[in-house]
Specification:
This protein is mainly β. The chain has no helices and 26 strands.
Length: 365
Amino acid sequence: MPVSTAGSVGTNPGDYTITYTATDASGNTATATRLVHVAFSTSWTQVNGSASDIGVGGGFAWIVGASSRAYRSVLTGAGTWGAWEDMWHGANRIDVDNNGGAWVVYDGNIWHHDGSWTQVPGKALDIDAGGDGSVWITHTGGGISRWNHAEGKWDRTNGDASQISAGQNGTPWVVQSDASIWTDAEGNTGFEGITWMNHLQYTTTTFNGSQGRYVRVSLPRSGVLSLAEVQVFDSDGVNVALDQPTSQSTTDHGGSASRAVDGNTDGNFGSASTTHTRNNTPGNPWWEVDLGSVTSVSRIIIHNRTDGWTDRLNDAQVEVSITSTTPPDIDAPVITLNGPTEDSIFFGAVTPSWVPLQLMSETAM
């Protein structure tokens, strides 16, 4: 199915929209838009040379330059860098620790430069050094490991990823092969058994004026349905779901259905503003709001939990209907949202009475 792109991101602070339009063989279109917010402007200065990867630390900048070779530049003054020095070593991926030492992946092999080059055991796709001195890799055969400085070996943790980066405190962030983003939900407080959290907080669905009184969020499987907030906007931009009557399949841990329309988007369950259905019960979990009358629905925003368990909304379906019943099986165009945060869906050629919406579709780590 061909997809066209319109729009670009500007250099000045503000909101910019990128629009993706897919057209099927029958001429029906489905359009996804991504909102990009530029918060501030930066006075960028071009540096001599070209690179495919870069790392900075300890007063040194390292790049993967021409012919997949490692080059280094030294900070010589306030904002002044020296010429690029050929370090006589191949590199495909590179990062730099706090001491200015380079960690390199070249043809799958791992190398470290701390005055001289030393090959490190193991194979890797990507490598990154955290601000706490930790070094992380993603393996060529899948898997994630952190370098054990004391024992000179890689310690394996759970999970799989293709790309990795570590924060100032060493917390790992990874990208899986399906482009989904994950981080350690426990902030790297302990290494063994990382609790990976999918970094999806909310999604926006635009229904192009669908008429309906009831909005339902459901899962096509058993499990727990948990929502921080559901906002339903009419053609005037008013959230018509706020404080309206709600219901859900079951309730557990005090997570009543009304929490999803209380006006509080806080995704932390401890803040008492997130719904929670009962686990291991027959049937598929669902949540529903009664808008009070048939309304022209223009946009729906679903806020997910942010304290973990975000994958519970995988494959969730959003339905707009006239009556509070299970919707018919109609053929409506669907776009799968694989990116985090502010995604929108527009249905241009059709006006469905309900729309199945896949929030994410990755394998849990």
